[in-house]
Amino acid sequence: MIAEQQKQSILSLIARLSPNTEVFVRAAMEKSGITIFLHDENPITSGVFCLVRWEGTNYAYASFMQDMVDDQVIRLIESTIRPYIEDNDPLCFNVYGGNKSIIELVKKLGFTPDMEGYEFVYQGQVPLEFVPTKLTIKAFEQSALEDFVTLFEQSYYQLNKDNGWSVDWYANNKGIFSERLALKSQTDELVSFWSGDRLVGTYIISGKYIQDLVVHPEYQGLGYGKTLLLHALNLLIEQKGHQSVYLRVAKSNAAAIRFYLRNHFVEIASFAEHTFHKN
């Protein structure tokens, strides 16, 4: 049983990865599904290295206040995680984005980077300022699938290329993509914006998160990004009643980071997610 003071200390460190991760680890604690390998409560060197086993998958987490942890901690993480690598069960490792030495170790051990980035929360004014738009607002329609494929592939091309992700996933998986868009539209979690018969952009939400917010490259730099963002914030805060709105941004997406910081989002977490792929 984890003492309450230790529990809160660990969760505050895990929250630096993301609020959702904190919720996940908290649930694991309640079900005794977590193993704490290291927990340092020193205010200067505090950190945690733990593992959650959930539905057949192992999730390792490391979050330390000091960006460069000492060699003893690195050796402990390496010796502890190797048996899990040799196991047949799926294995993921999420590291606080500032802990470069641990990230280097995880990659050396053969983990594949999934995404490295930041989590932001909106701290701007509420109620939101109203920005009228001449764009036509629609849900998703199957007849517009090709427009959505083009929008996502062109808008995310450089991001996908920079991170080694597939640059043509949407074109190669139209059936899956169409199902996702249709489901999001049915649950009022997708809104698209059109100028005549041209798809300018769209956003997709999930819970209290803005999951995607994309503007076609031909319409970027014209203020449409802010139009979509304010519309999404209005939907989440004013209509759905969420008190906080979050989003995740890849570390390599410098333009998006500047955009969200400029529009009253604040960084609250930093993460580097990895998966070990068994041969």
TrEMBL record:
Keywords: Acyltransferase, Transferase. It comes from the Bacteria. SUPFAM superfamilies: Acyl-CoA N-acyltransferases (Nat). One of its GO terms (molecular function) is acyltransferase activity, transferring groups other than amino-acyl groups. PROSITE patterns: GNAT. Pfam families: Acetyltransf_1. InterPro entries: Acyl_CoA_acyltransferase, GNAT_dom, YpeA/RimI_acetyltransf. The keyword Methyltransferase does not apply. The keyword Mitochondrion does not apply. This is Uncharacterized protein. It comes from Paenibacillus baekrokdamisoli. The lineage of its organism: Bacteria, Bacillati, Bacillota, Bacilli, Bacillales.
